[in-house]
Amino acid sequence: MSGSIEVRGLSRTFHTTVRRPGFLGAVRSLVNPERVAKHAVTDISFEVQPGELLALLGPNGAGKSTTIKMLTGILTPTAGEARVVGTVPYEERERNARNIGAVFGQRTQLWWDLPVRESFAILRDIYDVPADEHASRLREFDDLLDLSSFWDTRVRHLSLGQRVRSDLAAALLHDPPVVFLDEPTIGMDVVVKEQVREFLRYQVEERGRTVLLTTHDMTEVERLAERVVLINHGRLVLDGTLDEIRRKFGSTWQVRATLADGHAPVEPWPGVVLVRRDGPQVVFGPDGPAAPTVHQALKQVIERYEVTDIALDEAELEDVMRAAYVQAGDMAADMAGDVAGDVAAQAPARTQGG
Amino acid sequence: MAMPSALRAWRAARVTPLGELHTPPRMTAALLRLTVQVVLVASLWRGLYAATGTTAGLDREQAVTYAVLAVLATRVRELDQYSGRDTVLQHMHFGTIVYWYLRPLPPQRYYALRALGEQIYGFAWAIVGYAVCVAAGVVQPPKSAAVAGVFMVSLLLGQWVLYYIMLAIDQLCFFTLRNGAAMLILIFAQNLLSGVYAPLWFFPDWFITLSSFLPFQATLSVPLSLHVGRIQLSDAGTQLAIQAAWVVVLALLTRLVWRRAALRVISQGG
Ligand SMILES: Nc1ncnc2c1ncn2[C@@H]1O[C@H](COP(=O)(O)OP(=O)(O)OP(=O)(O)O)[C@@H](O)[C@H]1O
Ligand SMILES: [Mg+2]
Question: Transmembrane stretches, by residue range (chain B) (predicted)?
Fold first, then answer.
């Protein structure tokens, strides 16, 4: 078992100084700083296979960016281990740098005063990419991201969408097998988002790159990811397919059917309840954790009853995720229950202020 | 396995000059400012010397030459990094510093390459300015080929010291994000103590003594004094040795800080 990305028991605790309110508080903080430990990521394990796209999901502050920072080597974990293409990223940062590309949301790595193409050329030199390879890769990226319409413009004059597309291209110019994207499509319009998704799909399917993506855009997840890892309060709560998440948290589907025989007896079956009956109109809903997906339920209804009309209401992934985040929060809190006592008690020797 | 070395990474040196070349208005402004400064400084010092022959061991021609060379020399590292969002302070502020640690080129080497490109570019400006000023008779050329040679060596060492001083100021940004004020004070001190505002020879003795314990005068005061002959060739050896010593001391110091800076970034995650 050696995926492109292997994460075992990864944890990261930040130690910060609490600022007390008010003037006296400020003085007290100076004299006797109160330190708290913040467990941003706790005991996370997962694997991403070569050529797989995994979405790392979770509400704000869940620990997604912290996880990605450890995998890119710019943050050292307090416990656990990570390997990216066999390299421990925070121990061999330079070697890791050749294997990965990274885009951090709204932070650009391009040079503000230079035209995009000059930025690309400087990255080509830094990564030592042969000129012909660089040129052909640029052509490929241009086809998918339409870069040439603005690549002679200086970065400071680019629109957000143009800039992020340039940043995506910049991150992939050295042909890295693994790509980390922390909210890459934040603030983009729908057309550009679709273009970026197309680009990512191409990079995964045609180029075989491994992609780890975080996003708050559920459409994106639906279009791109087969597998997701859900974290909350720094803990992994689910590692599975979108269908599994739907089954687990998406308890809001309904199947509405019109029966051919309005007086036929209707009984619920395991995993499915009868929500409402009004003559020939019946509405089924999911029941418990073993409930079938909406598509399975649809099939089951048709098999059991003679229907003249059938329709389904499926919860939007967004609703599913809302339910998942809320429930996952409770689950993470339960898991943390045994160790909750030490959160505030630790008084580490080193502080890291601001 | 050894890392394949990035053979062409040195070309990152072109970042800042390219940025300048792509912004012609900035170059025009720089040219204008430089011209005005040279003219003003030259007439100021001529005016100051209207009634005296020699002060602080400098005669009129020496003083004017010194002052104009100081203006030209500041051009060497006075590029508009700020508007290019390329200062360490800004990278820390915007969080883009993480990309420095995500490349196969170590941040300290990237920083050095960029500074080198900047200094070479600025040097080109200074040389053209120098040639024009000599031709116009504003600046007196060195007295002999030996003086010229020693001046070149001393100028090179001075720029090297200056590089480390600027680096040290930038490195502060890794540890405090609110050092805009500290930066301004340091830059003022650097200009004052290196003799940009006025040759150090004009300051009181205690000031000169104090300054001799600091690295600042090694950047400009020493090479310019050699150029105008205020430091004799016979003393040049000592001065060059002191400059070289500062290069070594500051190199070791900033190297240490780079290590702490990396720790800072990888413990905070940028
Ligand atoms: N350098 C730091 N010092 C102290 N606490 C930090 C630091 N970086 C992150 N944290 C804390 O760790 C937790 C996880 O942060 P992280 O940025 O990983 O969340 P996220 O999942 O990326 O959230 P978002 O969706 O908002 O981007 C947060 O509570 C955050 O406040
Ligand atoms: Mg984040």
Answer: 120-139, 145-169, 181-200, 240-258
